[in-house]
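# step 3/5: fold
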Amino acid sequence: MLRNIISANYSLSELTSFISISQKISVSYLKYLEINGKHIRSRGSEGTNELNDVAIDCIADLFMRNEAGQFIQLTRYFSDVIKSDPPPAEYQLSCLLRRLIVKKTKQELSRIFKERDPESAKIIRNIKVSIRNSTKFKSFKEMGREFIYLAPLANKISTALLPQPEREQVSTKVVHDLDAQFREKLERHIIPEKVLFHYFLQKHVPSDSVSAMLEKMMEIVNSLPQYQNCIALEVAASIIREVTFQHAYEKLTENIDYHSPMAEIQFKEIHEVNQSVIASIHRKIEKQYLQKEKITQERAAIYSKAISDFVQELTQDKATDSNFQYLKRYIPSLTQELYREQERSIFEYLVKLTKKSLRKRLKELL
């Protein structure tokens, strides 16, 4: 079938089958990334069908054709291989196809992420620059994710006054000890984002640079022996984005004189932003979930009310509840188990989308 596709001598059924196979390869890789901690659907949409859509979006460019009906990228990749002598076996072509699709999925995921969440993409870019320009941080990739850790400090231990052989022994021992400690901590769990965020808020200063914020996060991790001494890059980016939003809101409201003539205007502007964001999320619920019959009318109404409560309390400087508690206000029988099984994926996505919209609109008022 692949040979027919490359030679532009294919039937419609063969093309349909080939696209389906390619999509399944991409979906399997996306699921692999999710299993290992990547948030694929949570940054776009929820459910298996949406993951299939992401996969198609990732591999779409592979099926661009020229005027002769040839698939440009597929032909460029496979043409010489198919014409080689002896011709490749089917399993070899299958391996090459999988390699191409996985590579393309990786590339396009980065583009999709930047389009969907440009603010987070900018933060991640700044984090990588900080790692590259600093001697304090290192990073490594494991199971499709990138992790940050503090560089070993062996080079800061002074051995200048020791004889050469002893200097080498001390340096070697220090490095081995540090490596042993690092390996020991790798056997422990990665610190959860909520735990790190809780401790980080106590140390964060709004004027901190990205490098300073990373250093504080690593100090927190190293002070908690039950966790590994590394953090996922996307977790660091998520926390930085969240504190940036909180600072933007505080800056917006800190100079409000609640008894001045301007106060009413300022509160009116914030109220208009709230209503605009709430209306946008309501439309999202109706278009993406209700019209596609993924949720009932009753559930759509509950999500809308819960989101409205969240927005109003967040922008009125009130203590906000957990996502679970916001839903439990309208579903008294809701348990944590039912929330995780039936509500969590959609509602947490809606909350994240709400935060992102609020952050953008409030910054425009600064």
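# step 4/5: annotate
The longest helix spans residues 261-290.
# step 5/5: archive (pending)
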